[in-house]
Amino acid sequence: MLYLDVLFLLNAGIGAAFLLAAGKLAHRRTKRWRLLLAALVAGGYSLVLLLALPGWLLLLLQLPVSLGLVLLCYGWGGRRETLQLLLSYWGGNLLLGAVLSILEQWLAPLGAVNRGGIYYFPVQPLVLVLVTIGCYLALWLVGKFRKKSAQRLRFRLQAGDRQVEFTALVDTGNRLRDPITGRSVLVVQKQVLRDCLPPAVLDALSQGRPEQVDSAQWQRRCGVLPIRTAGGAGLLGTFRPEGLWLLQKGKPQRVEALVAVTPQPLGGKEYQALAGAEL
Predict the structure, then answer these.
(1) How many Å apart are CA 69 and CA 64, to the nearest integer?
(2) 112 versus 137: which is more confidently predicted?
(3) d(C-alpha 90, C-alpha 198), whole Å
(4) pTM, rounded to two decimals
(5) Cβ distance 236 to 224 under 8 Å?
């Protein structure tokens, strides 16, 4: 006998587990309500599969439904990231199917039924839960030891009535903070700011000498930050911009951070600033 509530809860749990595993593999986080909503949709879709639909139609539905679950859980993060999440989600489901197939061959003839590429195994719910947990842990370990690709962020900075946009590399080793306010520090190469800051102010900050700034207006916004690198100790000139926005998914999000000016080129065309992981 098939209980619809058990079927719904099992598939909701499996969907949540593999959506979480996909996030681990792609190094993405999501909010609990988004994960719960996607899990409920996954559980509801399992009930749709009970309808007498043609096998080819069920197979055709796999892509849009899986993509919808990924987008519901994580939102749109660009084609590359969304594809990575989708493939990771499929990988978890394929791993579960492979393990159940092995159990069918080694333990007992479970009598799997294939409908449109979707396999149904008459197994006990506890067995299915344990296998799902095992698959999730395996994917979690892969994601834990998988090297995270360098993340880049896009920023817009306003100084005076001028704005500039640039790309920053997320540097987990950048733990610079303003010792007074505790704000994170965004290190930007001098060349990027040449059209935003007055030349005299920019030169003084790039040399770590904000006391050389003559403008009283700029003096109130400038400071100095001691740093220590592999090459030794030094000073970075900093300033408080009128505005600093993180550009994500086309929507600017205001962030509170100091901007430190470095005369050294950073990443060429790939990135022109270094951001801490807190940003």
Answers:
(1) 9
(2) 137
(3) 53
(4) 0.49
(5) yes
Tokens 């099992």 belong to which residue? 10
d(CA 128, CA 140): 18
Q: What is the pLDDT of residues 13-31, one digit of tens each?
A: 777 777 777 777 776 777 8
Tokens of 79: 């084609």
The token duo for 253 is: 């999000």
Lowest mean pLDDT among 86-90, 147-151, 170-174, 267-271: 147-151
* DSSP letter string, 139-176: HHHHHHHSPPPPPEEEEEEEETTEEEEEEEEE-TT---
* pLDDT, tens digit (0-9, with 9 covering 90-100), for 92-134: 766 666 666 655 555 444 455 544 445 555 555 665 566 667 6
127: DSSP letter: H
| Helix%, strand%, coil% for the chain, nearest 5 | 45, 25, 30
**Any idea how long the chain is?**
279
21 contacts 140 by C-beta, under 8 angstroms: yes
Q: Which two tokens stand for residue 119?
A: 């396999």
Q: Which residues, including other chains, have CB under 8 Å from residue 243's CB and lie 6 or more apart?
A: 156, 157, 158, 163, 254
Angle, vertex CA 170, rays to CA 165 and CA 172, nearest 5: 155
- Reported in sequence order, the residue ranges of the chain that DSSP labels E, i.e. its strands, are 113-115, 118-120, 152-159, 162-170, 184-189, 222-229, 232-239, 243-248, 251-254, 257-262, 273-275
